Amino acid sequence: MINKDVTHPKMRRRIENPRILLLDCNLEYKKGESQTSIEVSKEEDFNRILQLEEEYLLKICNDIIEHKPDVIITEKGVSDLAQHYLVKAGITALRRLRKSDNNRVARACGAQIVSRTDEIKEEDIGTGAGLFEIRKIGDEYFTFITECKDPKACTILLRGASKDILNEVERNLQDALHVARNIMLDPKLIPGGGAVEMALAQILNEKAKSITGVHQWPYRAVAKALEVIPRTLIQNCGGNIIRTLTALRAKHAGGQNWTFGINGDEGTVVDMKEYDIWDPLSVKQQTYKTAMETAILLLRIDDIVSGQKKKQDDQPQQQVSQPSAEAMED
Predict the structure, then answer these.
(1) How far is the C-alpha of 192 from the C-alpha of 278, rounded, in Å?
(2) Which one of 63, 187, 267, 286 is most buried, counting C-beta atoms within 10 A?
(3) Contact in structure between 100 and 10 (CB atoms under 8 Å)
(4) 145 strand-pairing partners
């Protein structure tokens, strides 16, 4: 889907099995890169200049018309004269498309982006699309290229009652796509609902019991920090934090029920396998790495230097001297 309309009102807005040509060049007279000036002394010379421009555009359009495309999509502009030639040939044209959108169209219909019209080949034209159609949604026109045979790109259209709702839907969709991507790259899952955090906390507490001295406290601190996840889940659904967390610890005490976590709706201890709630392993690993690195970074800080100076009076208090007895007698 592209937020574009045809360049000429007489161009077709619906084409079945279209031949799509993608361009990365201007369909208008090419201006000089540097500042140029022409001195005309006769009227015939001026007419000849205009004729050269028309001949150049006619050559470009003839190069395109030879391959009989139905749709032309270019990243640059299309002049009025070029539109006239294309309309006569029954070709629909879209102009000033973004580079990223042009690449997606190429992946969807199997076309190749061409930079010069004299280099167009038959294999550059995309024939994988089944329908080219322009629809009006609201006050704007949108181009749809659908029914593709072997598409490698697609568009997800989101609609909402307001801008805030639309932004929220977009964020949720982005999170879901990232989760699917992480699972495809690293297809490993672990139980959610705070089950893994409580299992790790149990293992660290058992490890701390086997260590004497101050070296056991880092293990206990990390275990206590991991319990924040199930505690927060219980708090969010209004459950009894102390009673539910104690029941969850008892489930994990033997090391057998490591898949038990918190039901986020009711605040009860349930088996995550039965509820089918899973988290990607790669996300959990990155979360723990970031948390540990942040804690180590804070522990490396020896002292905090305050940038505020003590408030001092700008002018010292003047001492008032008492007159002496002799001065009083004088």
Answers:
(1) 5
(2) 267
(3) no
(4) 132
